User: Which sequence fits this backbone?
């Protein structure tokens, strides 16, 4: 609590503006990226959640008579619309199930990273001084460690499971949360409502989590989308290198690795999971960019 | 500027030491090293002999200090797998990874800066939208996947380029393109937003009012300021490219640092892994420091 800082965030809105909700709705509709990204993401999430329920094929069952069956546009068998992989497993079923794995790992790893990063960032920004120095040092150390390499070595050392992959990713991608939470907490801490809370005797923990956190949530949502995309791509890379999701579980990165040797004669085995990855990451990024534009003070780009 | 840079340099050194501590802890926690060195069939006495001769029976702090002293003299120990010093292995592979990273970054800048300037000058036009869409799309594509698609098209179908290895310059083409595509979107967006800010500023309006040619205004007056953040991020990107080289090098079977790390991880050759992580971390910290220096040189306000 040093000098009173000038509030960077407008605290009162002029009365002539339309109701906040309608304004928000208008901004969402006016932002094509948000609509396209949000719609696409909804579609992928629904497909991943409901697809395996409604689509009758088992992603683990091996149809030995139909190994590397062609997809329907190449005249493949009707029971496997997108063909089968090298072990004769239905490719569409594996793609749908792989979506679940990507989303599961992504969401859990990002939640963990958010918990770590936001706590560190808020504490650093709120208290400043020595605490801030320590957190900045932690952030710099984290940034200096090559993510893929460290993740690979930890997974190779500790052992390989879905839980380990999630934990490793969670511990490696918290830095952006910390940076954003720290910066915003520093801006907010001098503003009147925080000082008022302090004056009425609120504890530091209460101020940090009840007063400051809700006010920086917009920025954190944007970071969360960036890191969700990041986590999904990292999981794919780890699985591609053989140290992420383990067979027989389907992960899009692992599916690409398994089909690597069939690149020339059966390229769809590579292109399909790749397209699935691109669409998912694209949807998340578009949505994130859209949220950033919508919640930016000016509301326009 | 001097004080700022001294502080950054100190921070860089402390971070490097910290990463070395983490790497050391990782190595020791990975299991009984003596057992690993002699192999699973060795007798208990053999394990003990090795434990003594490698100094693994000493307290961890002493071990770290010993290791750090050797490391400062360029001695990172011996590989469990190759009959060679880790430092020799790294010295042999580092140039490959560095070349890849530098070419990749150069390609990214060559592509991103002109495109970013055009997108900023014609902000809101179809060209701007195309550039932004391309950037979002580029960021969504996993680099190992692009690598495989390039191999399929240029290596297997057209037969123009070798599908693996980097024995001559042709082997570097596809991996560098993949790295370039990885780095370009962020650099393009940064150039664009920097340029848009600069073009709105007063001194550009003055330059325009003086009647200078538009191209002159943009290139001579605008570019220098717009590029300050781009240059500093480019240095950091190089660190990221080298750190991420494990993916691209494994796709194209290029025997650089990343490939060595990947092989060593699967062989539990931890002295090599630990040293590579440390090398990459030091390079990253060094590049971040370089970017601070560049920033200070380019931006008079920081001097």
Assistant:
């Amino acid at each position: 609590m040093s000098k009173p800082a000038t509030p960077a965030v407008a605290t009162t809105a002029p009365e002539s503006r339309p109701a906040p909700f309608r304004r928000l709705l208008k901004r969402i509709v006016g932002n094509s990226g948000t609509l396209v990204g949000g719609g696409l993401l909804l579609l992928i999430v629904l497909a991943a959640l409901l697809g395996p329920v409604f689509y009758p094929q088992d992603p683990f069952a091996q149809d030995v008579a139909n190994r590397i069956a062609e997809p329907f546009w190449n005249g493949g068998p009707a029971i496997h619309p997108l063909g089968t992989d090298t072990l004769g497993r239905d490719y569409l079923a594996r793609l749908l199930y792989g979506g679940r794995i990507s989303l599961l790992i992504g969401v859990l790893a990002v939640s963990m990273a958010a918990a770590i990063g936001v706590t560190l960032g808020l504490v650093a920004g709120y208290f400043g001084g020595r605490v801030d120095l320590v957190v900045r040092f932690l952030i710099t150390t984290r940034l200096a460690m090559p993510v893929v390499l460290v993740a690979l070595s930890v997974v190779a050392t500790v052992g390989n499971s879905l839980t380990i992959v999630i934990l490793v990713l969670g511990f490696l991608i918290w830095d952006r949360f910390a940076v954003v939470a720290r910066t915003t907490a520093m801006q907010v801490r001098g503003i009147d409502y925080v000082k008022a809370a302090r004056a009425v005797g609120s504890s530091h923990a209460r101020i940090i989590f009840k007063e400051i956190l809700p006010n920086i949530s917009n920025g954190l949502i944007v970071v969360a989308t960036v890191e969700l995309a990041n986590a999904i791509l990292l999981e794919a890379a780890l699985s591609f290198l053989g140290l992420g999701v383990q067979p027989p579980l389907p992960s899009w990165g692992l599916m690409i690795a398994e089909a690597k040797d069939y690149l020339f004669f059966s390229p769809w085995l590579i292109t399909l999971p790749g397209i699935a990855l691109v669409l998912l990451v694209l949807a998340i990024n578009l949505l994130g960019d859209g949220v950033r534009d919508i919640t930016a003070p000016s509301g326009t780009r | 500027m001097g004080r700022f840079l001294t502080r950054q340099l100190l921070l860089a050194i402390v971070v490097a030491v910290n990463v070395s501590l983490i790497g050391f802890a990782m190595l020791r926690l990975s299991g009984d090293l003596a057992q690993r060195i002699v192999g699973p069939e060795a007798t208990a006495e053999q394990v003990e002999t090795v434990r003594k001769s490698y100094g693994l029976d000493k307290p961890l702090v002493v071990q770290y200090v010993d290791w750090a002293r050797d490391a400062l003299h360029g001695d990172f120990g011996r590989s469990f797998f190759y009959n060679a010093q880790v430092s020799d292995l790294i010295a042999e592979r580092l140039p490959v990874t560095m070349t890849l990273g530098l070419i990749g970054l150069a390609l990214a800048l060559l592509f991103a800066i002109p495109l970013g300037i055009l997108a900023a000058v014609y902000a809101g036009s179809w060209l701007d939208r195309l550039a932004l869409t391309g950037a979002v799309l580029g960021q969504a594509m996993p680099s190992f996947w692009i690598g495989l698609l390039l191999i399929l098209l240029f290596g297997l179908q057209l037969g123009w380029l070798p599908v693996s290895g980097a024995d001559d310059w042709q082997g570097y083409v596809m991996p560098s393109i993949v790295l370039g595509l990885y780095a370009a979107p962020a650099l393009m967006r940064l150039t664009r937003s920097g340029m848009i800010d600069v073009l709105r500023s007063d001194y550009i309006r003055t330059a325009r009012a003086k009647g200078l040619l538009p191209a002159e205004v943009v290139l001579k007056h605008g570019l220098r300021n717009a590029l300050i953040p781009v240059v500093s991020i480019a240095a950091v990107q190089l660190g990221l490219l080298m750190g991420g080289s494990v993916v691209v090098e494994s796709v194209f079977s290029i025997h650089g640092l990343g490939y060595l790390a990947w092989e060593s991880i699967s062989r539990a050759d931890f002295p090599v892994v630990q040293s590579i992580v440390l090398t990459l971390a030091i390079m990253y910290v060094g590049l971040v420091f370089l970017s601070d220096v560049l920033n200070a040189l380019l931006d008079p306000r920081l001097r």
Notes: The domain at 94-258 of chain B is CATH 1.10.3720.10 (MetI-like fold).
